[in-house]
Amino acid sequence: MDEKRTVKTSKMLSRILRHDPGRAGITLDAAGWVRVDVLLAGLAARGTRLTRAELDHVVATNNKRRFAYSEDGLSIRASQGHTVAVDLGLAATEPPAVLFHGTATGNLGAIFRDGLLPMARQDVHLSADTETAVRVGSRHGRPVVLTVDAAAMAAAGHEFRISANGVWLTGAVPPEYLSRPQ
C-alpha cells in the first residue's frame, strides 16, 4: 500500500470510527468498537475495497496511533476524538503536573475567556509534550502552545484519562488553569 493511499485510508477510517459510522453502514458498540469483518464488509458494500492486511498496515503505520485493535484482534476502534457518543472505558489517571494544548493564535481570545472546551468532541485533548502540541496547533494556523496546570486541576477535582495513543483527555479546562509558556 503506497503512502498516499495509506493516508487517505487513515483519514477515511478516522471519519468513520470517530464521527460517522453510518457512512460505512456500521454501528459502533457503546465502547466504540466494531468487528473488523463488519467494517470491511460495510466498506466493500459502499465501493471501498480494503483487505485485512491493508487495514493492519494503516493501523500499524499511523504516526498518531489513532486506531486500536481489541486484544483478540477481531474488533477495531478509534483511540479518541469521537463526536459520536462512546465510552472508551478509560480509568481516571493522575496527570503529570503540566500538560500542553496546541492551538492557533486566532483562538486565544475565546480560550482565555471561556477555557478549552471539547466543542463537537467528547473531551479536550492535551499533550504531554510541547512538540506534539505544536504539530496539533499547526493544523489550524500559526501555532501557539498553552500550558495547562494539570496538577492544580486534578487537586480541584477535575478528572483526566489517557487514551491508548497517549493523548490526555479531560472534559474542559477552565481559563484559570491556562498560561502561555515563557
Automatic annotation (TrEMBL):
Which Enzyme Commission number(s) are on file for it?
2.7.1.-
Q: What class of enzyme is it?
A: transferase
Xref: InterPro entries: Ptrans_KptA/Tpt1, RNA_2'-PTrans_C, RNA_2'-PTrans_KptA, RNA_2'-PTrans_N
Source organism, top-level taxon = Bacteria
List the Pfam families hit by this protein, alphabetically: PTS_2-RNA (PF01885)
Ranges annotated as spanning the membrane? none
What the entry lists under HAMAP family is as follows:
KptA
Physiological role: Removes the 2'-phosphate from RNA via an intermediate in which the phosphate is ADP-ribosylated by NAD followed by a presumed transesterification to release the RNA and generate ADP-ribose 1''-2''-cyclic phosphate (APPR>P). May function as an ADP-ribosylase.
Query: What's the family?
Result: Belongs to the KptA/TPT1 family.
Protein name in UniProt:
Probable RNA 2'-phosphotransferase
UniProt source species: Kitasatospora aburaviensis
Q: What is the lineage of its organism?
A: Bacteria, Bacillati, Actinomycetota, Actinomycetes, Kitasatosporales
